[in-house]
Design brief:
CATH superfamily of the largest domain: 2-enoyl-CoA Hydratase, Chain A, domain 1
Organism: Sphingomonas lenta
Number of domains: 3
Shape: globular
Low-confidence stretches: 1-13
Strand order of the largest sheet: 10-11-12-15-16-19
Protein name: Peptidase S41
Largest sheet: 6 strands, mixed
Amino acid sequence: MPLLMSMALSVAVADTDWGAKLKRDADRFRAVVLDSHPGPVDPENPRFRETLERAHARALERARTTTSHVHRFWALWELTAAFDDGHLGILTPDGPAPRAYHWAGFVTRFADGRHVVSHSEEPGIVVGATVAACDGRDTASLAAERVGRFHGKWTLRSYRERLSGSLFMPSDNPWNAPLTRCTFERGGATRDVVLRWRPISADRMWKLGEAEHKARVRHRSPVSLERLSDGSFWVNMGSFEADPQSEQGRALTALNAEIAARADEIRRSPRVVFDLRGNNGGSSSWINQAAGAIWGEGAVNGRTHVSEGVDWRVSDANVAAVREYQRMFEGKRESDPAIYKGVNALAEGLTRARAQGVQLWREPDDLWPEPEGGPVHAVSAKAFVFTDEDCASACLDAVDVLTAMGATQVGRETSADTLYMETRDETTADGARIWVPMKVYRGRPRGSNVPATPKHEWTGALGDTAGIRRWIASL
């Protein structure tokens, strides 16, 4: 970078009022939620407004002492985490300067509910020792306060297991005061150690956590159908991208066409595995089509409705977002007229509700009609659905449908979602991205933030596809 340009950038960064940016972020987030989220007017969730106001007030309190992008970054993570909802949040773009990390000379691996030292460069802290407590507090409560408070969903086992290991990883979160003293246990003996904090590079930080990272690394399956050497079928569905015109949408269309063409082979194969690794939702229509092709529409129909009713929050921005759906599904006019008709009816219904001043609009029961009856096919293949911690939203709907068809869930415990769904995005003037749900399910059998738990748990690396295939073949 030229010297003059570098100097100009440094001055611009130094002159940035990060506290003012954070306040604008928090104010805009609150305004968007009040305008477009079902929660503030949801009679079945009277405490939502209290959560919003408390989280907003906390962000404004943070803004008064915010002096850097990193302060803003973590304050918005905290604001997002307050709702325990992956469908609602606000995040900033990358900051203008390298992140500055610090550590206490050791890192831990989280296993069986314990923080075990996996690497140490600090005299008196030995590999294999367990961290019992720090500053008079046990590690479980420390992880909840120092990690869970900024990530949310801490009641979920999948979140605690995936994120607790970062408690002693190098961090740049300025809202967590450095721990001063920890007690270590090994072989029945305990030892108190005063912690010495020092800088560490980002590259070195990731290398130190490599073993833990490899075991927990996120893996996204492709979108494809494979026939394995033993004749089994492996259905890769790492995405349920909602836009059928997108690259992933076209791949899913081709995948379902191939499943339909080879459905008889799949039914008679030794096993069929739906691999949902990395799938965090989208449109559940993809799995409904795939399951219908294999088990028959008569078996699947009636099992794809995930609730007793759906209420939409009515706002100009939400109406505009649904109008955009009309453009997305224009290509379905001929191939799937029911979906095309439903999207148009949804847009018209919300538009009328807006004109009438309605805050919540009940989606008609016949908006997405399912054909009655239809064929039911005998399936001799053993069916499995492999899940990981990313599985949420439409991915969870897929687990519900497949297990209803007799599939066995294997892999890892899933994520979970609230009853608020169908997000839209917007970007603030300061570059922050806000996403907010527009509808709420009523009477959904799977409760709010309830995960799906596998019958058989995979404890190896999520990227070990060959190992996973051998393991499932042995079940």
